[in-house]
Amino acid sequence: MAKEHDEIYELFRKSKHFVFFTGAGISTNAGIPDFRSPNGLYRLIDKTYDLPFPEAVFEINFFRQNPEPFFRLSSKLLSRNPEPTQCHRFIAWLEHTGRVSLVMTQNIDMLHQKAGSEKVHECHGSYSTSTCQDCGKKSGYDEIEKPLKSGQIPLCTCGGVIKPDVVFFGEQLPDMFYSYLRKPPMADLIVIMGTSLNVFPSAQFALDLAARVPSVLVNLSPTNYDMAMTHVVNEDLDVFAEKLWDRLK
Ligand code: CNA
């Protein structure tokens, strides 16, 4: 493992164009559960929510019939006022050294930006903007923060349900994601962090780049794509980031 870390350190030291691909595992140390870990959202949802199956909470057709479980879950996540982790801060620091081309995140929690990253693409959207499902009126996070944090269903002046611009299962990813998929930013290293790589097409972005440039995958549990990576580290992301950051500073 020490040799692996030395090789990764060398890659990080030399790389000039980092692309990061992050998932829910980067935010678990901020207190936001991921999807599929033993304490993940799907297990929590199973026990306490009245849903046909856990994933329904993020399915657009289910949301249209019954938005309550999504807002109940959102309040649990947002009312904790999560702060970025060491790993989020490490990525932001690297960006400030001028060597990050893009942080592609599947996360909807806005923690990369809170840590100071600017070159972020949220391929599954986020809570930062919302849209009325009836009249299409847009609102910013501040306008619906109160109902979101208290678990109420935010309603527009027209009476429609205001849905955060989070990409649900059954919805299209942003056009920008497909532009990045077709034409990835300049990269000499792809760093994949805290994701099971189970959600497509977002995972395709990381896998395509990993086929072209050296790759480092850091995740607590093995994924189905470990064999496709140059380096795989099964470790807590904050532990990983702290060790590396200390050496790179
Ligand atoms: P996932 O399938 O739950 O995978 C997360 C992975 O992270 C797992 O394989 C874990 O082993 C690993 N992991 C958990 N904690 C750590 C840690 N501290 N250090 C290292 N590895 C860790 O989630 P994915 O991100 O792969 O799936 C994509 C979904 C999850 C997207 O649609 C997201 O919107 C969605 N999601 C986002 C959030 C968030 O915004 N924070 C939370 C939960 C789900």
Describe this structure in words.
The chain has helices at 2-14, 41-48, 60-65, 68-78, 86-96, 111-115, 141-150, 175-182, 202-210, 237-248, and strands spanning 18-22, 100-105, 120-122, 125-132, 138-140, 162-166, 189-193, 215-218, 231-233. With 249 residues, it is of the alpha/beta class. The chain folds into two domains: 2-30 and 84-124 and 171-248, Rossmann fold (3-Layer(aba) Sandwich); 41-79 and 130-166, 2-Layer Sandwich (SIR2/SIRT2 'Small Domain'), CATH 3.30.1600.10. Strands 3-2-1-7-8-9 form a six-stranded parallel β-sheet, sandwiched between helices. Strands 5-4-6 form a three-stranded antiparallel β-sheet. Helix 9 (202-210) links the parallel strand 7 and strand 8 (215-218). The mean pLDDT is 94. The structure holds carba-nicotinamide-adenine-dinucleotide (CNA). The site of carba-nicotinamide-adenine-dinucleotide (CNA) has 28 residues, from loops. Carba-nicotinamide-adenine-dinucleotide is lined by residues 23-25, 27-29, 32, 34-37, 40-41, 106-109, 124, 194-196, 198-199, 219-221, 236-237.
